[in-house]
Structures are given as structure tokens and as C-alpha cells.
Amino acid sequence: MSVEITTPRFKDNAKKALADLPLQGALSKVGPGFIGKRAAAAEKLPEFDGLRDSARDIKNHTLAHLDLYLERFEAKAKAAGGHVHFAVDAADARAIVTDICQRLGARTVTKGKSMISEEIGLNDHLAAVGIEPVETDLGEYLIQIRGEAPSHIIAPAIHLNKDQVEADFRRVHAHLPPERDLSEPTSLLAEARGELRQKFLAADVGITGANFLVAETGTSIIVTNEGNGDLTQTLPKAHIVLASLEKLVPTLEDVSQILRVLARSATGQDMSVYTTFSTGPRRPDDPDGPGEYHVVILDNGRSAMLGGQLREVLRCIRCGACMNHCPVYHAVGGHAYGWVYPGPIGSVLTPALIGVEKGRNLPNASTFCGRCEEVCPMRIPLPKLMRHWREKEFERHLTPATQRFGLGVWAFFARRGWLYRPATRLAMGALSLLGRAKGRFASLPLAGGWTQHRDFPAPQGGTFQAQWRARQAERRAAPRQEASR
Amino acid sequence: MSSRDTSSRDTVFASIRASLGVTSQEAPRRQAVADRLAGHPRGLVPARGQLPEAERLALFRDMVIAAAATIDHLPSAAEVPEAVAAYLRSRNLPMTILRGADARLATLPWERAPALDVWIGPSDGRQLAGLSHAFAGVAESGTVVMLSGPENPSTLNLLPDHHLVVVDAADVAGDYETVWDRIRARYGEGVLPRTVNWITGPSRSADIEQTLLLGAHGPRSLHVLLVGGPTR
Ligand code: SF4
């Protein structure tokens, strides 16, 4: 999918999303589904919080020694017969992948789910040079045939309902009998399985992401439930892994620590179905597996983040828990964020990757309720980092226009009081959260009703508030909720 | 490596070093990294898997079932051929199974299941049922650990609709760390086979309205044949 950036129009995107009824129907299932499952999985493992500490410490150690672990990874992957390529930016990474595909005369490329592929806009680029990219994760396949971007980092098609999927399948799989029954999710899945099976067997190159890279052994790891990533990397002539440089961990033991919190935080499983460790190409006596193995390690701004507060973001393992628990995400969905990474992680990562000018709206798209940080398995202080961006923005641009714009986004959420309700009831358990999430959507009529929730907790961050008050006094045009306080 | 690759590599490393304020030559940093790689400390291993054998096998079975797979506990490996035949019969599948060259599978008394047709090799996607021998099982999550190679081709884990996996009770560990040590003992420090597959239940997707459905791209059914060890 192309990476047209609509982040600067976040407020408009959000307004549209709030008025989009099918989207609101789909979003109403996000909280109830994920929150309870994560809570139950965490509850069942007494060591869960201890493992979060361990996972955080492992990544902190790795990031502090990233140069050395990367050197080791590179040496071990090469010793196993693999190729390691470093890419400074998206264009660099696209060129590396295209060169490999063209050298192999590839016409079709199957793809496992990869956020890096989205970040570098790989599919459009491959198509432009005459190579057909086929997404094989069911969710990614759905959005590919619709020409959309993912709206969630682990459930890319979470914004769709099954009627929309049925309509798309009838449109795209026109060679199948029109009278076939596609009314149930099972029949939709069976059809996708059949269609994609052919693609898997015909593909010349398989491209996957990586959940982790292991320095000890020169190994890349993918974690999936469908098995699509495994078919993608096993059947074609070459396997290309797209990874950003912070995916590194030192040892197999280290990744085992982090894997214990990944699936539990993401889907509430103890372990995802397929956790696959790949090292080099097929060995001389292997009857299957790819003949070539390439790892493309992308920087794209991350090495610069190592130097400051934002280093903490590089611990992220893309589990999705922060967006699953985010009232703003629940309200507007992933597309409103306007680029590849939605939710709280998107709000802190996007300005770093696409620039603060384009991404500056996102750190304001927060109620500062703190739920994201509470559930983040890597203990990333997401609200603190959002404040970091806001403060940076206010320090840099104190022109009234800029500030009004920044406040505009914040006030947009502030006026929708129901977004703040979760923050007032943090102590409630997962079950009551479910009930409330449903009730909230029953009362969606947008601006109405905000007055009864006016006393939402003030956002933390003295700089922001102080500046806001000062600016309001100056302008004598106080936003409504301030005036009536 | 092309010159573009080389210069990109230099740029990335220079930027990392600048951000970290390091040269990569600092002896204490190099030592810390070498120590971690050589010592591979285990971290926090859940108590759940640290059980005596009978309880460990019981936990393994419970977790396999929790992951939506099925399991037979057989007194000995000699029972495997009949158990495979019984599985295929119960699912109304053709009496054909594809397996790799694993000696532990080759030496089974296949004559005990005369109706069963046993083929050897990787899968090309046309077989309905495949049989593999696991390197290990992990009780804490009901995971089977598969290693690639001619003994147990990776395609058998993925392409057939039904994947049957033999696990020796003696190979069921409580935790992943024990399995890593056994893999190191076989392949050497810092070396893995091309593919290590942890498999926890059959393939699934929840991408359509978050409805969990089994059999997305990989096997629709995973059936574990646990062999030997105490039964409870
Ligand atoms: S920031 Fe934390 S919760 Fe969000 S995706 Fe990353 S690891 Fe998961």
C-alpha cells in the first residue's frame, strides 16, 4: 500500500471516522475482544510482570550495545550462508529488495505481514517495476485487494466487517461461481486459503518481516497464527527478511523471555501458533527451504532516536496492546492517524519517522489516561514520550497559528468527554471495562453529552497546561469547557 | 556486497555510534556483549514448567488441548502406526501419510497398520496428512519444537491439512530454555538448523471480525502422539 501521509489532517480524519457507522461497528469490538483476553493471559502467569521487567532490561541492554550486537548478527548470518544488507532509508531498502527480485527474474512475490514493508511503501514500488506483490496474511490480503493501509499493527483489517469482505471477494475472485455462499466467516477463510495456496506455490521470492533478530545465531524470527509467513519463506527460491535495527536481541534465551510477553499482550495466547527461527538458506541436504536468504536491516531514522529520550520507543515489539487499550484508538480507528503506525505507539513513533512537522498532531491525540503504559509489555512510558513531543513542539513553534492547531486537536478530544471516562475508572477490572465500552458506543451522538463529563482529569504536563492557560488569557477566547468551569 | 551496501552500512553504524557516543572499541562494552553471548543467561523462567515428569507431561497435554490441538498418549512408539491409522479413519481421510526420513519413524512397525500407505519426502501441497517427529515438546505452552532437515522436512509442518507429530515423553521439557540447551548440545554453540519451528496448536486467523477460525494457511488440525513416560 502506498504511504500517502494524511497525518497533518488528523482532526478531519478523526471527525470522518466518528461519523462512519460501519467503522464504528467494527471498532466497538476492539476493546471487548482484546482487553479481556490480555488480562486473562496475564492473570494466568504469576511471573508476567517480572517477565515485563526482564524484557525491558534485555532491550535496554541491547540498545546500549546495538553496534556490537549488529556486528555479531551480521557475522553469524553470513557464516550460515545468508546475506545482510543495511538500508539508511526507505528508498535504500526498496532498491535492495528490487535488485534481489530482478536478479532472480521474479514475477510474483509472496509476502508475510511486515510493518517495515508498509513503512517503506514496498508494494507500490514492486508493482511499478512489474513484480506482483501478494500479501498472504488474511488481514493484509483484505486491505491489499481494497487498496487500503493497515488500521492496526497486528489486525490490519480490524476496521472491516464480513459483508465488506464478501463484497470484495466477489469483486476480486470473479473467476469463482457467483452463486457460491460467502455468508459465513468460515467460507470467506476457505476461499482465501484456496486462492492464496496457488500464490504460495507459484511465488519466486518470499518477503517477511521479523519480530526479532538474534545476534547469537544470526537468526530472524517471525511469529504468526496463520502459518502464512512460514509458507512465504519456505516455498520460494529466496527469502528476504525486512527488519528494522531495533529488532535485535542478544541470545535465544533473551528472545524466549520476550516471547513470553508478546502473544499474551497481543492476543491473550500463551504463545502464538507459529514461532519460526530462520538461519541462512537451505542446507545442502535439506529437502525444502529457500535457496537464498537475505536480511535487510533498515535504519530510517532509528539510529538518531538512540541518542535521546526516544530510545525507549525502540524497545517496542509491536504487540498492539497500547492501541487495544486506547480510548482514542477505539473512537477513531487506525486510519485516522494517517500513516503506518496508529495508536499510542504511532503517536510517539510517527513524528520521529516522518518528521515533527507532519506528525505533530499525533502526540495531542491522547487523553493521557495512561492505560497504554500500564499494559505495554516493554514498559515504554508512552504518555511521557507524547508529552516530550508536545513540549518540543511548543518550544519550537510558539506562533499562535501553530499553537492553535496543536490545541485544536487536543481540544477536539477534550470536548468529547466520553473519551475521558476510562481515565476516571482506571481501577476497574477488565470485565467492567467491557460493559462500559459497549455503553459508550450506544451513546455515540458525538458532541452531545460532553458537559456531564467536564471534570475529566486534567492532562499531565505543566508546560502544556501553563502555556495553554497563558495563551487563552491572552486571546480571551477560551474554549467552552474552560469558560464554564 | 555492492558499494551502495557498503556505504549504507558505514552510514548506519556511524549514526548508531554517534547517538550512543561510542567507538565500538571500548573493552568493557565488548566484554559485556561477549559475556552475554557466551553465558546466555536464562532470566526469569516461569515456575509452571518446573515439575516432575508425570506432572510435566500432564501439563503438556493440557496445554496442547488448550491450544486447540488434540493428543494421544501412547505407551510406546510401537503403537504409533495403528494410532496414525485410527486418526485418519476417524477423520474419514484416505489411508495415506507422508513423512520424512527420520530414523525413529522409519523403524516403527508399520506392518501393524497394513492398510496404511506411507510415503517419504517433503510435501508439495497435495497431501492431506503429514507425520513428523518433534525434536522436543514444551510443557509450559503445549508447544512442539520441529527442526528442519531431511528427517522432518519443514513443508510437512505447513502444507498438509492434518499434521501428526510424534513427541517422545523423554523430550518434553518444562521450558524453552531446556530445549535451547539440547539444541546447542547437538549443533554446537551459536548454531541452528535452517529452521526451528515452535508450533502451538493448529493454524488460525481472527482477521474477519475477530472471529477465531482454525485452518488459515497451515494445518487445520494438529494431532500430537505423545510416546512413553508415565501416564496419569
Ligand atoms: S508500545 Fe508497547 S504496547 Fe504498544 S505496540 Fe509497542 S510494545 Fe506493544
TrEMBL record, chain B:
Q: Which InterPro entries match?
A: FTHF_cligase-like_sf, LUD_dom, NagB/RpiA_transferase-like
Question: Gene3D superfamilies of this UniProt entry?
Answer: NagB/RpiA/CoA transferase-like
Looking at the record, the residues that make up the LUD domain are 101-227
Q: Which Pfam families match?
A: LUD_dom
**This protein's name:** L-lactate dehydrogenase complex protein LldG
